[in-house]
Each structure stands twice: as structure tokens, then as C-alpha cells.
Amino acid sequence: MSGRRQYECALCDRRAVVVGGPGHDLHNRTTTVGCCECGQLDDVVVARRIDGSAFSPDDDMADELMPKCRACGADAVMVWTAGDPCPRCGGSLE
Ligand SMILES: [Zn+2]
Ligand SMILES: [Zn+2]
Question: In three state form, how does the secondary structure of 56-68 look?
């Protein structure tokens, strides 16, 4: 398991427990995205282990695979890395 930790926006009070960047669990490679509409942070799967040993060689998430926000359904999500500002209000996420 990758290390998840809680991030909290000082301005809009949005809170999430995410990796804060590229990570992986048992079966999938994940990355963290943030929603520009509601500020929700979420870890999403960008690559799956196909045969239990190797990830698919394509590390880059194609734009069309960008998921919709699970919280509000908006498709205005962007890759979010620890240290980036809140995708919703630009406040600092700690
Ligand atoms: Zn915020
Ligand atoms: Zn949203």
C-alpha cells in the first residue's frame, strides 16, 4: 500500500485522504486528482496489472481516460500532487 495521508484546505474546508501523487495498491497504479468544481481529491486508477506481474507499459493517463469527479460528477478534474494548491479555491492544502 502506498502512504495515504489527510490533506485539508484551510480556506474551503475540503478534506481528503489521498496519496498526493503517483501511487499503487496491490493491483493498480494510481494517481491523485482534484476536482476544480468541488475541490474533492481522489486517487484514481491509471494502470492495472494485467497478469499479476507487470503494469501496462503506458504510464501516462490519456485525457479521455480522465475520470469524472466521484463527488459531484464534474469532468473538470486535474492531476493533483502534494504541494499543489486546492483545485477549487487555490488555498493551501496541508
Ligand atoms: Zn480549497
Ligand atoms: Zn467535484
Answer: CCCCCCCHHHCCC
Q: What is the pLDDT of residues 54-85, one digit of tens each?
A: 555 555 555 556 678 989 999 899 999 999 99
φ/ψ of residue 7, rounded to 5:
-115, 145
* Domain ranges within the chain, ordered by starting residue: 5-79
Residue 7 contacts residue 18 (beta carbons within 8 Å): yes
Give the distance (Å) from ligand 2 centre to CA of residue 52: 32
Reported as a single tens digit per residue, the pLDDT across 12-63 is 989 999 999 999 877 788 899 999 999 999 998 887 766 655 555 555 555 5
Cβ(9)–Cβ(58) under 8 Å? Answer: no
- Please give the distance, rounded to the nearest whole angstrom, from the Cα atom of residue 53 to the centre of ligand 2: 33
- Measured CA to CA, the distance from residue 46 to residue 25 in angstroms comes to 11
